[in-house]
Structures are given as C-alpha cells and as structure tokens.
C-alpha cells in the first residue's frame, strides 16, 4: 500500500486553529487550560490531551519588520521512528499507510519514547499512566476518510495523499514561493531523520517556525537500544557472577595475606 502523508503549507495557514479543534473533537479529548503567558499561542506544546497545536512564532525581519510564522505541530510519523526503537515493550508500530501507531495496551508509561523523539512529541497522560500522541487519524483513513484536521482546514493549508505525489506538489509550490517574495522557501520533512510523514512547505528556514533545522536522534537512546537493551538479559547474571568472583577472590587474597603476616611474625620472634 502507498505511503500516505499529510502536507502543510505555511503560506496558506491563517492560524485559525480549526485543525486543533477538529483533532480534539474526533479523538474526544478534554480541554486543557494553561496559564496565560502574554502571547497568542495558548499551549506551549502538545500534551497527553492535545495532539495538534499551531505554533505562533513572532520574527522580526531586519527590513520588513515583525512577521508571524505559523506552523502546525504534531507527531511527525517518521519513516524511521526513534520512539519505536526506544520503546522496551514494543508499543509502537507502523501501519500499512505509514502512520506511527501507539498501542496503549502495551504501554507502561516509561516515557522513553518522549526522550527519544527529536521533536518531544509523545506525551505522558498521568490519569492513565500511558503515553498519547497524534495517530494521523489511522481509524479514519482506514475507512477511506481523510484526517480530521485536513477536512476542517478552511484556507486549504492541509492536504492528505501519497507521499511522493505531495512531495512533487510541494516542490512546485516552493519554486513558486521562491519566485514571489519568499526566496528562503523550503520543504521540511523530505529527508530529515530519514524522512517524515508530515511534510511542510515553509516560507523561511525551519528555525523561524520553531522546528529543529537538523533534528538528530539522541546518543543516549542509541546506546540503550543498540547495546544495553539487546544484551540486558545477560548483563544482570554477568554482573552477579562478577560480584561473586570478586567476593571469593577478595576472601582468598585476604586469607593469604593473613597467613603470610602470621608466618612472618613467628619468624621474627625466633
């Protein structure tokens, strides 16, 4: 089956946040009220009950002055998910259409996936002691429907379709933007982390939109998944065996030293 993806065009987004509301509605997620921080972005990031937000980045251009850089933010559904590599219980999997699926029945709430994700997307839901995140509406798309966020986007900033087709469309759009006032327009998600299943058309560099320019997997997670986790079952008995050997060796050496001291002491009195 074709790899399906979500395309977001920042040049068309009006930051109405209809996508966030639609996501809440479809997934039956409760409202989350955060403390007002004096800006238009009502929530700092995603959380266990908010899978999709609009990042509202204020940027001061040296010539054009203050500019708003809107960016829809949610799970990136990476082609090579770090969350799936880090999860010790196999709670993550890829669907036939490319969505990164999370199975709450296998989740133990360890949050390794949160720390492994370069975007820090999977979030802890305290009341259930589980992780939760965007599903790319896998239940809807399996029934032939588009993701809820796509169906509600009034300015047409969101599209859903085959990844290669949308990448080609994004390339044409970026070329147009570069020739019409946005020389730094670019595609985000084509190659980052081996490719994302959330493609962005950005009118400027990713950092202006609150996105990492060159997202990287964390070295500690790689060490865990490549070295510690595969051999974890052997490490405990080896450690115990090493402790036992150390204990016995220490006792033998102590006895030898005691015998030597005793013999040396008797020889001195003669």
Q: Could you explain the architecture of this structure?
A:
By secondary structure, the protein is an alpha+beta fold. The protein has helices at 18-27, 82-86, 112-116, 138-142, 148-152, 163-178, 219-228, 232-269; strands at residues 4-9, 53-61, 65-73, 92-94, 100-102, 123-125, 130-132, 158-162, 186-188, 198-202. The protein folds into 2 domains: 4-223, Alpha-Beta Plaits (2-Layer Sandwich); 232-269. It has 8 helices and 10 strands. The chain has a 4-stranded mixed β-sheet. Strands 2-3 form a two-stranded antiparallel ribbon. Strands 4-5 form a two-stranded antiparallel sheet. The model has no long low-confidence stretch (mean pLDDT 87).
What attributes characterize this protein structure?
alpha+beta; 270 residues; two-stranded antiparallel sheet; Alpha-Beta Plaits; elongated; 2 domains
CATH fold name of the largest domain? Alpha-Beta Plaits
User: Which regions contain 5 or more consecutive residues with pLDDT less than 50?
Assistant: none
Structural class: alpha+beta
Distance N terminus to C terminus?
A: 93 Å
* Strand order, largest beta sheet: 8-1-10-9
Instruction: Indicate the percent of residues in helices.
Output: 25-40%
Could you tell me the strand content as a percent range? 15-25%
Task: Please tell me how large the radius of gyration is.
Answer: 27 Å
For the report, how would you describe the main beta sheet? 4 strands, mixed
Number of domains: 2
Q: How many distinct helices?
A: 8
In CATH, the architecture of the largest domain is 2-Layer Sandwich
CATH class of the largest domain: Alpha Beta
Order of helices and strands: EHEEHEEHEEHHEHEEHH
Q: On the 0-100 scale, what is the average pLDDT?
A: 87
- General form: elongated
């Amino acid at each position: 089956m074709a790899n399906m993806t979500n395309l977001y065009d920042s040049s068309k987004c009006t930051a109405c946040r209809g996508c966030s509301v639609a996501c809440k509605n479809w997934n039956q997620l409760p409202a989350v009220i955060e403390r007002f921080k004096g800006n238009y972005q009502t929530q700092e990031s995603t959380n266990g009950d908010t899978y999709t937000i609009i990042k509202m980045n204020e940027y001061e251009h040296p010539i054009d002055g203050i500019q708003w850089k809107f960016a829809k933010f949610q799970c990136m559904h990476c082609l090579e998910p770090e969350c799936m590599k880090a999860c010790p219980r196999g709670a993550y999997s890829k669907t036939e259409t490319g969505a990164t699926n999370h199975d709450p029945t296998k989740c133990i709430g360890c949050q390794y996936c949160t720390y492994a994700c370069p975007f820090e997307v999977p979030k802890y839901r305290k009341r259930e002691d589980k992780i939760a995140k965007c599903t790319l509406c896998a239940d809807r798309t399996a029934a032939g429907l588009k993701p809820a966020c796509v169906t509600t986007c009034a300015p047409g900033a969101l599209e859903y379709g085959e990844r290669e087709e949308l990448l080609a469309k994004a390339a044409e759009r970026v070329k147009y933007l570069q020739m019409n006032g946005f020389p730094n327009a670019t595609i985000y998600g084509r190659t980052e982390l081996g490719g994302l299943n959330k493609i962005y058309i950005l009118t400027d560099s990713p950092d202006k939109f609150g996105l990492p320019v060159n997202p990287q997997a964390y070295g500690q997670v790689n060490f865990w998944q490549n070295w510690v986790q595969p051999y974890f079952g052997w490490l405990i008995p080896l450690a115990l065996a090493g402790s036992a050997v150390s204990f016995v060796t220490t006792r033998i050496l102590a006895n030898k030293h005691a015998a030597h001291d005793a013999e040396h002491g008797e020889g001195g009195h003669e």
